[in-house]
Amino acid sequence: MSEVTKVILDAMGGDNSPGEMVLGAVNAVKEKKDLFVYIVGKEDDIKEELAKYEYPADQIEVVHAPDEITCHDAPVMAIKQKKESSMVVGLRMLKEGKADGFVSPGNSGAVLVGGQAIVGRMKGIERAPLAPVVPTINGVSLLIDCGANVDARASHLVQFAKMGSIYMEHVIGIKNPRVGIVNIGAEEEKGNALVKETFPLLKECKDINFIGSIEARDFPYGAADVVVTEAFVGNVMLKLSEGLASALVKMIKQGLTATPISTLGAVMVKPQLKNTLKIFDTTEHGGAPLLGLNSLVVKIHGNATNKEVKNALFQVESFKKNDINGKIREHLLSEKEDV
Amino acid sequence: MSEVTKVILDAMGGDNSPGEMVLGAVNAVKEKKDLFVYIVGKEDDIKEELAKYEYPADQIEVVHAPDEITCHDAPVMAIKQKKESSMVVGLRMLKEGKADGFVSPGNSGAVLVGGQAIVGRMKGIERAPLAPVVPTINGVSLLIDCGANVDARASHLVQFAKMGSIYMEHVIGIKNPRVGIVNIGAEEEKGNALVKETFPLLKECKDINFIGSIEARDFPYGAADVVVTEAFVGNVMLKLSEGLASALVKMIKQGLTATPISTLGAVMVKPQLKNTLKIFDTTEHGGAPLLGLNSLVVKIHGNATNKEVKNALFQVESFKKNDINGKIREHLLSEKEDV
């Protein structure tokens, strides 16, 4: 029998907590024998949800945490003061080595702060980037960094490129992933001070497949597999993509039902349209990993459904089995020796 | 009779040059008696196009320029060396006060460089931002700055906010326009160093209607009328919006014709869908003004059609009639006195 992967699931803090969290865990352990899930949160609520399903009871354990970090909490304060929240309890368990990864739908800022403060960065990693896998017209791209660590330096971006490459190759399965840096023109001399400083450093990296600058216009077409950028820009790109897609879909839906004929047509195109828009479904690829920590922390959407929860749990398994942190360590060590 | 507005139109350097440029000018002068257009470029080609139409001949004059700046030229070099290009000839005419504005579909970088180098910034203006009017689900927003002047300082962003407000109020006609700064969270303490420094300065400005941070997610919903950001981020937002909209539309079209039933339905929804997507038609609002120069420079799309050309010519008229530069000067002078 293969080794068991243990995951800590923060059942609170999401829009669908704890119902969808629990169902995601139940579906995950039913599908994989070698998966064990600690569900952390309000014990009574979680057990009430668990009672609805049949599942292998020896693969799930409920860990009581009476408090909860909400989306209204200020991240740093919440992590410091809400010691009995599901997020802090879960991150502490991860720090203590009780599991291989931690998954949370909760307050993004708090996950970022808590991951760094409680779990800690790997030695040699300067920053821990949040790196969501974003759907494109031709597959998926890793957008790294979308976190809260703004005003990055060039050396940070180089580490992001390396960690992102390892993740895309070994977790998502893209051989020799193309690394691009977000820029405002395709030429090497273009860009702001940070991009101009980072570009030659990426060009020198032998262990990544650097293809140069990519323009934001080509991002939805999958211009690179690993899209490197500073967190402020990455965050803007991620949120603008979400906002624009939702605005367009909303408008198209309104447009389709504007006349009786178009409404009839809308019924006929609906299944195909749904299929098309599914490509932009971010729940397929689990959550956004916070890379470079001592253990894996995954942020899933606040409104994550059981499918996203299940995929995030599997993502931890894949991260562990492919020894991503070992590979990151290896690349960093060899880099340090070079210097 | 009201005063004549004179516009210099760079007929070269666009995908549809000079055909659509000439037709745009012809339609514009046919519609407005008090408009005069200098069409600059290869005289023979322009005259050949003009010969196709009937129009008031006393409202158009062709100015010969034998050379052309293409999209492959490096901006600074091109402006320096291609002295007989339509762009440089046109910008020089503007500098000499022969017209009220200059419109070009050519090389964006060259328009930005040429505008600043040849026409020059107004006294007191630290940077000349490129400020396209971008369609949103609820109207339009001015995205300022999308130019090539990256790594802006807080004082630049404050000027952008003021110039943008004047433009939106007096050219686009939005009373007391809401000014927002692009940020990665709605709270005042969020953001990168630049945003944190700029936020309190904008809050203090009495002559703008500052509403605080806006997240990129809300940009397509028209969260602010004047959306202030540093040029790198603005450029990324503009290009990502264009890329994502085109990718989505492409996918939807493919999806609609995937089955016989959906294809039949597609025929029925097509007129409404077209209407819906027209909202994202950027050609309605002319081009992107380069604000803060001694005279108005407008960059239209490289693939601009005659409609966009015509609207850009009208935009110059509106800019002149509303004395936008006078208003900008007034605000800057009072600011200088305050200091």
Structure commentary:
Two copies of one chain form a homodimer. In chain A, the strands form two sheets. The first copy, chain A, has a six-stranded mixed beta sheet, with helices on both faces. A five-stranded mixed beta sheet of chain A has the order 5-6-9-7-8. Chain A has 339 residues and is an alpha/beta fold. Chain A is built from eleven helices and eleven strands. In chain A, helix 4 runs parallel beside helix 5 (108-119), helix 6 (154-172) crosses helix 7 (193-204) and helix 6 (154-172) runs antiparallel to helix 11 (324-338). At the A-B interface, helix 8 and helix 9 of A face helix 8 and helix 9 of B.
